[in-house]
Amino acid sequence: KMSDMKQYLAVNPVTVDGTKIDVCLNIGSADKSELELEQYTDGVGLFRTEFLYMSKQKLPTEEEQFQVYKKIAEVYKERPVVIRTLDIGGDKKLDYLELPQEDNPFLGLRALRLCFEMKPIFKTQLRAILRAGYYGNIWIMFPMVGSIGDIRFAKEIIREVRSELEEEKVPYGRDVKVGIMVEIPSIALMADIAASEVDFASIGTNDLCQYLMAVDRLNPSVAKYYQSFHPAMFRLIKQIVEEFKKQGKPVSVCGEMGGNPQAVALLAGLGIRKFSMNASSVASVKKMISQLNICKAQRMSRTVLELSTAVQVENYLNSEFLE
Ligand code: PEP
Ligand code: MG
After folding, report:
1. Confidence category of residue 4, pLDDT binned at 50, 70, 90
2. Beta-ladder partners of 182
3. What is the mean pLDDT of residues 6-35?
4. ipTM over 0.90
5. Is the confidence at residue 2, as pLDDT, over 90?
6. Of all atoms in ligand 1, which is nearest to the CA of residue 204?
7. Is 254 an active-site residue?
8. Would you say 34 is a known binding-site residue?
9. pTM for the predicted model, two decimal places
10. From the alpha carbon of 90, which atom of ligand 1 is closest?
11. Are 250 and 275 in contact (CB under 8 A)?
12. Could you give phi then psi for residue 254, rounded to 5 degrees?
């Protein structure tokens, strides 16, 4: 089955009625194996940089990070490479970094919140990313943004780093875009204001589902409550997409739903034109896109917004996509 699917790798992801959809890669390193599908993708939509930190016994230096980011930027040339700043805490730990014990780590000092507490570590990473931006089309993305205040504070730190690089006469990307993950419902509901503060957004459906449905994404005993196809997810995503589109700011999907062909069809119906996914999903998503009609996708998404349960959504999708 997988070998049949492979023929779709080289397909240009354009719908039957001529809408181009960007298909991008989620990566965790600059290793050759991770970049194998580079030629078949429109960019990197999510570089989970925490793996750089987790694969070592100590913090990666600015230079080490710079080399990794620069390498990816050079491979992708003019295509965008979205580098997400450190997203640890929650389920991801660093052995060499003493983090407080928490009763609810997913609701705790995680990702951007942790970076605000460890400003020197955050600034080192931002320096490396901005410097790599000189060599390609790098976009910076903040994880776990919960408020407009988070956005402003993060941007303030970027300004600080930029002026330091400026002062030191170190080359860096002057037009590096700055964006956010939308994965906490509070910022999703503030999308109109968030959109005016950033250059782009990417919807992290894994955490968005976790926080919207109040279900630990890793806890098997509540797995049945983790319903990423719940109509509530699509209603919220619709609102995010509309607000960003109004202001002409790109919005993509980089959670697991972005690699699920049926979800991609629905999300394209809601207006998403860029998806980022694991390498294993690229062929099947391209297949879906190349067989999709945007009018049909829009009709499907309108139907789904009126359904009551996740099961109804799944059954509806299965019936629509019956071969
Ligand atoms: C997400 O939350 O959807 C996401 C893409 O980030 P991660 O899975 O790394 O938390
Ligand atoms: Mg996330």
Report:
1. confident
2. 203
3. 96
4. yes
5. no
6. 3
7. yes
8. no
9. 0.97
10. 10
11. no
12. -125, 5
